[in-house]
Amino acid sequence: MRITAKVLVSNIGLPTIKIGSWTTRLNLFLKKNPKIFDFILSPNSQGSKSIYCKKRKFFIWKKQLRKFQLLNWVAADYLNQLKKLSRKYSKLTVVVMDDPHLLEAIAIVKHKLKCEVQLIFSFHGFDLNIDSKTIAEVDKILFLSKTGLEKSKLNYQNFPKAMVVGNAVNSNLFYPLRASEFVNERKRMGYSETDEILIWMANDRPKKGFHIFKSVAENLLRNVENLKILIIGSNQTIDHINVRSVGRVKNTEVALYLQIGNYYIFTTLYEEGFGLSMIEALKCGSAVIASNRGAVPEVLHNLKQTYLIDEVEKTDSWIESFNLARTNSNFGKNRLTKDYTDNIWNYEDWEAKFKNAIN
Q: What is the Cα–Cα distance from 356 to 359, expressed in whole angstroms?
């Protein structure tokens, strides 16, 4: 029997080309550190370490049947593979990526497995609210922010060991273009040197605040002559000749759009665990205007060309900060430099923290 093995558990197939904050950094982590995890349980069978496991939906909602469904249907693939692995090793370190259902299922069977199990939960939200019985079986929780960790502690009498590993953006992919490249790339994508480009990027969930952005954008389009607006990741748009909506794009293409922008608006309505898209935009050189919610103020603390909005439902608050960002950046001409942005939430710092946490 071998001694130990590290197992990564994900409800998203890894590696993936889907847009997502943690999937992007984890793809890079797995590529750079192929020996860290011995097995990857996810909806992907490609790769020598990959074992295909699919998380299924609850087929009927009845409280009395919930546990049975969870163990025998929803998380069954993952539990069956962990049972097999527990017969081959004396200890498993199981890292669950931000899925409370899979975490709960593994916590329930943890002591029924044939070997010792260290259970680690990588939490990507802000305010952790998981059943206390499940939390009691977790050995370590990884948080994106200190603010989120401290807020989550208030929900429990006994809290497991926790570490703040933060988040990260690949500085080799997200970086400001040099002046000549900036002009040329904008021309290639149909924009002029004098255009001021405002970007909004998120999915279609209401809590991302597209309705707020739309109200702000419509006002600005009436008053800012050279304003162009770029919408990424959403099927929603604004009926105006100066608005372009590109929908969902691959992770590798997101930077190409962010690098031509001047301003980025982050209109979230809920307590964000981190808000990675605003850091991607900042690292590409844009000024960032963001909701003062969740971990956002911690993430943007002391960073240049960032503006926080307290009254997020008020259009005038966003417009006021946008006008301030224009003035302070000389109407978008003064962009952040690569020397500065390389040190903002860079991937290498996160990688070191994550390695330390799972080891």
A: 5
Class of domain 2-169+346-358 as given by CATH: alpha beta
Q: Tell me which amino acid residue 230 is.
A: L
* Cα 256 from Cα 334, distance rounded (Å): 19
* pLDDT at 57 exceeding the cut of 80: yes
Distances (CA, A) of 51 to 42, 48, 81, 164: 7, 8, 8, 29
Q: What is the 3-state secondary structure (H, E, C) of 200-217?
A: EECCCCHHHCHHHHHHHH
Residue type, 59: F
Strand-pairing partners, residue 50, are 40
pLDDT value, residue 61: 73
**Does 179-341 match 2-169+346-358 at the fold level?**
yes
CATH number, domain 179-341: 3.40.50.2000
The domain segmentation of the chain, as residue ranges, is 2-169+346-358, 179-341
pLDDT bucket at 60, cuts 50 / 70 / 90: confident
Contact 71/40 with Cβ under 8 angstroms? no
Overall size of the chain counted in residues: 359
**CA-to-CA dists, residue 40 to 9, 26, 37, 264, angstroms:** 6, 12, 7, 35
- C-beta separation of 354 from 35 below 8 A: no
For residue range 241-267, list pLDDT tens digits in order.
999 999 988 877 899 999 999 999 999
What does the pLDDT look like over 72-125, one tens digit per residue? 999 999 999 999 999 999 999 999 999 999 999 999 999 999 999 999 999 999
H helices of the chain, in order, are 21-32, 63-69, 76-86, 100-109, 132-136, 146-153, 179-188, 210-223, 251-258, 276-283, 296-299, 315-328, 338-341, 347-358
Q: State the Cα–Cα distance between residues 315 and 212, nearest whole angstrom.
A: 7
Measured from the Cβ of residue 116, the count of other Cβ atoms closer than 10 Å reads 14
At 48, the pLDDT band (50, 70, 90 cuts) reads confident
